Amino acid sequence: MRYLGLDLGTRTLGISISDETKTIASGLTTLRFEEGDYDAILDDLRKILEENKIEKIVLGLPKNMNNTLGDRAETTIMFQKKIEELFNIEVILQDERLSTVAAHNYLLEADMSRKKRKKVVDKMAANIILQTYLDIEKGRK
To answer: Which pTM was predicted?
Structure first.
């Protein structure tokens, strides 16, 4: 069984997956949709959950820097509830402040072109979200 990491944007859903030991996160894919049309990606998400035997989802929660919840966080919480109900799976919210910034910095350090960065940044942000959660879980044990 594995965990799935999600980074929900306005038009993309970055997805990462853990290894079987739940130690290492790896970028999987990015789903694209029309702005705000989250229902458009649910069938693809269902396939990923089934094909990879996912037992838990870690969804990035975009808090404001002062730790408050804004509009994007409220949208994320609604998405969390929707996928919990539809797929009968636990969805953990993981603080994702600066995960996209960190993803951009990693890709810049790798000297990746802007065009290539745009294609993988959401998947990389999902990877950072999931890896952060995995590291916290390992620290608790």
So the answer is: 0.86
Q: Each residue of 92-130: pLDDT tens digit?
A: 999 886 666 666 566 566 655 666 556 667 788 899 899
**Helix runs in the chain, H state only:** 42-51, 71-87, 99-109, 114-140
Q: What angle separates helix 99-109 from helix 114-140, to the nearest 10 degrees?
A: 120
- Rounded to 10 deg, the angle between the 42-51 and 71-87 helix axes is 60
Quick one: which H or E segment has residue 12?
strand 12-18
Contacts of 72 (CB under 8 A, 6+ apart): 62
| Residue ranges per structural domain of the chain | 2-140
Domain 2-140 in CATH 3.30.420.140? The answer is yes
